[in-house]
Design goal:
Blueprint lengths: L9 E6 L6 H9 L3 E6 L7 H18 L3 E3 L5 H8 L6 H19 L4 E4 L9 H15 L12 H10 L11 H8 L3
Parallel strand pairs: 1-2, 1-4, 2-3
Helix pairs in contact: 4-5
């Protein structure tokens, strides 16, 4: 068996939506990774929002020649049960659950590493995402690849608008939807 070359490195990219995938996909490909997407669904509410994001991602992925694995099911109840009474710290649970799902999928698929489009957003806690990702990588046996994709924030927004992509206005969970739209 021969060792992999840099051009053969396989990376599983947790993807939350199409627009957030634009810059990380380009940057990772420029670094020589073969990238496959993984769409995690349980944290996106309501279900119609989940479907819009999945459709936008799949359309973009097809255009860019990126294969995507979409999580099956829709465990709204499980997500809510895990964050109830911890609403102020819900992101920690959400990051952990999404990254753990990605790490386990990466292990099953024999990927060299995994990463996340969460690292593209200037609204996310990069230190916490990195810490959780690296810890899960050690636990599962597939390294977490950290990259600060925020430098491509404006580029990703411009490209997504040029392509007429569906652009969501909140993180995904019902609590972030309330924070974004509800005005007292």
């Amino acid at each position: 068996m021969t060792a992999r070359t840099d051009a053969d490195r396989k990376l599983l990219l947790h993807t939350c939506c199409g627009p957030c995938t634009i810059y990380p996909l380009r940057a990772l490909r420029e670094e020589g990774f073969q990238v496959m997407g993984f769409f995690y669904r349980h944290n996106i509410h309501p279900y119609t929002e989940c479907l819009k994001r999945q459709e936008a991602l799949e359309s973009y992925a097809e255009r860019e020649g990126m294969r995507v694995i979409s999580q099956e099911g829709y465990d709204l109840e499980g997500f809510l049960q895990n964050v109830v009474f911890r609403e102020a710290d819900r992101c920690t649970y959400c990051y952990h659950d999404r990254l753990k799902s990605a790490a386990l999928m990466a292990k099953r698929g024999k990927f060299d590493c995994f990463s996340s489009t969460l690292l593209y957003s200037k609204h996310q806690n990069h230190g916490l995402i990195r810490s959780i990702g690296e810890s899960l990588g050690r636990e599962v046996g597939v390294p977490f690849y950290y990259a600060d994709f925020r430098e491509g924030w404006k580029e990703g927004i411009a490209v997504s608008k040029d392509l007429g992509m569906y652009r969501q206005q909140y993180c995904g969970c019902i609590f972030s939807e309330k924070k974004r739209f509800y005005q007292e």
